[in-house]
Amino acid sequence: MPPTVTTNDNWTEEQPVMPVKEDIDATADAEAAFSLALSQDQKDIREWVHGFAADVVRPAAREWDEREKTPWPIIQEAAKIGLYSWESLGQFHMDPTGLSVPIVFEELFWGDGGIGMAIIGTTLAVASIFGQGTGEQIGEWIPRCYGTADDVKVAAFCSSEPNAGSDVSAIRSTAKFDEATNEWVINGQKAWATNGGIADVHVVVASVDRELGTRGHAAFVVPMSEAKGISEGSKVAKHGLRASHTADVFFDDCRIPAEYVLGGKEKLDERLAKARERANEIAAGTKRFSSSNPSMATFEASRPAVGAQALGIARAAYEYALEYAKEREQFKRKIIQNQSVAFTLARMKMEIDAARLLVWRASWMGRNAVPFEAAEGSMSKLKAGEVAVWVTERAIQILGGNGYAREFPVERWHRDAKLYDIFEGTAEIQQLVIARAISGMRIE
Ligand SMILES: Cc1cc2nc3c(=O)[nH]c(=O)nc-3n(C[C@H](O)[C@H](O)[C@H](O)COP(=O)(O)OP(=O)(O)OC[C@H]3O[C@@H](n4cnc5c(N)ncnc54)[C@H](O)[C@@H]3O)c2cc1C
Q1: Less crowded by CB within 10 Å, the N or C end of the chain?
Q2: At 105, which CATH number?
Q3: Residues in the ligand 1 pocket, defined by CB under 6 Å
Q4: 392-430 pLDDT tens trace
């Protein structure tokens, strides 16, 4: 089982006591204290996940990358120790500082990106169920996403389509309600779904009313074992993160019960009625168009966790390159004794630490419902992704020919890192979100 996370609001009391200077008012309000020191609980969790990443994940990484298959035995190992479970995810999320999730993700992805994604890919669907589902749906579906330690399952989140990537308003999949049978009928093609087709639970975003754009979208739970008309399309052969399964998913008159819409049908009907009213007001000129989307806050809150994955990959490459540069000799000296190599390593370390600060800030903001006024969630993901790509590329350079060889892990880390410029909002889309947030203006 994972070490427990302190859930009381006085977590700062657990921090090492700062020496009090005479001229500082020692009675200052403890709430005002600022500290980046981790609590003992957070350190324990980090050590625990690091142990699993070092002993189980890292040694298996090359094999599963080459096989390009889901590493079920490793997911099972993670389930057995309690790392792959809804209970542990819930526990990490309860940390009032918001830091446990990025700490766990960074360590796991330090072990390996592909296996890391195979283990945490399920959380994309879980986050959607948790964010949009009713209490009853959360209780029923989230445990099903994981299965049990003896019979592990994974879940998939299917939003992207062949013609709807960055532009989610272009989603063409439809969900029509059949009054006669009290069922939803889903049709369409989803693309790029992590765990698509191999998941027990698929969360699918489909359009219920196309005229309402993204406000006419709803999310549905489609259990593979029960629903007919859902099938796996072609699996994507990828550049990196190859231990993680990515595939198209087809929905062909796929029927699911009325209650499988997240949030419930009654709430959806209310939401659609409001959106139609609003659309009519805009058409009549009594209300102004606003591009703000209520789901943006959810995306902003989940982005730092994605940034933390990139950080783990970057740190793995930096640490490896540092050790290599201290060992490798050319011209009768260690290569790190050349300033160009040493300075590169210094900058690698600095960029990783800077990115981590952005990730931690955004994680803390998300956990404590601090408004993302400058799109701080996007900032953290953008920076961590760019740092991961740059650091892993520099690590290849520091290893020279060995950096380019499959026998060494650095080229794999570089391939894995590139995804972080692309998925969960490309680097360009993150900049768009930040630019709109800081300017308050419509920027195309
Ligand atoms: C390995 C992997 C796993 C994935 N997992 C999932 C998943 O589980 N579920 C899911 O739903 N999706 C998933 N995706 C899809 C992912 O979210 C999309 O690939 C991503 O949103 C980008 O969409 P796209 O690939 O269609 O690129 P496009 O949107 O076609 O973008 C192409 C290029 O145009 C740029 N561009 C587009 N619009 C603008 C603009 N307005 N301004 C400036 N530049 C712009 C982009 O930044 C990019 O550089 C995954 C993708 C990959 C590669």
Answers
A1: C
A2: 1.10.540.10
A3: 124, 157-160, 165-166, 192-194, 238, 241, 246, 419, 422-424, 426, 428-429, 432
A4: 999 999 999 999 999 999 999 999 999 999 999 999 999
Does 112 share its domain with 163? no
Residues 311-366: pLDDT tens digits?
999 999 999 999 999 999 999 999 999 999 999 999 999 999 999 999 999 999 99
Residue 69 within any structural domain of the chain: yes
Same domain, yes or no: 335 and 380: yes
Q: What is the CATH number of the domain that holds 308?
A: 1.20.140.10
The domain tally of the chain equals 3
3-state helix, strand, coil in the chain (%, to 5): 55, 15, 30
Statement to judge: residues 425 and 320 lie in one domain: yes
Annotated catalytic residue, options 47, 424, 428, 444: 424
381-417 burial string, b = 16+ CB within 10 Å, else e? Answer: bbbbbbbbbbbbbbbbebbeeebeeeebbbbbbbbbb
Q: Determine the distance separating the centroid of ligand 1 and the alpha carbon of 243, expressed in angstroms.
A: 20
Contacts of 376 (CB under 8 A, 6+ apart): 300, 358, 361, 362, 365
**Does residue 423 form part of some domain?**
yes
Continuous H helices in 328-420: 339-367, 376-399, 410-417
**107 part of the active site:** no
Q: DSSP per residue over 128-192, as a string?
A: HHHHHS-HHHHHHHHHHHHB-SSSB--EEEE--BTTBSS-GGG---EEEEETTTTEEEEEEEEEE
CATH of the domain at 211: 2.40.110.10
> Are residues 74 and 52 part of one domain?
yes
pTM of the model: 0.92
Instruction: Look at residue 428 and tell me if it is in a domain.
Output: yes
Burial class of residue 325 (count of CB atoms within 10 Å of its CB; 0-12, 13-18, 19+): buried
Same domain, 337 and 392: yes
Looking at the fold, whether 275 and 301 belong to one and the same domain comes out as no
Residue 195 has pLDDT above 70, yes or no: yes
Same domain, 277 and 328: no
Q: Let me know: does 387 contact 355? Beta carbons within 8 Å.
A: yes
Tell me the pairing of strands 183-194 and 246-257.
antiparallel
| Ligand 1 center to 165 CA (angstroms) | 4
Domain, as residue range, for 116: 36-120
Q: Which residue of 117, 122, 126, 160 sits with most ligand 1 atoms within 8 Å of its CB, as the best mutation to test the pocket?
A: 160
Dihedral angle, C-alpha 354, 358, 360, 362, nearest 10 °: 180
- 240: nearest Cα among 423, 18, 23: 423
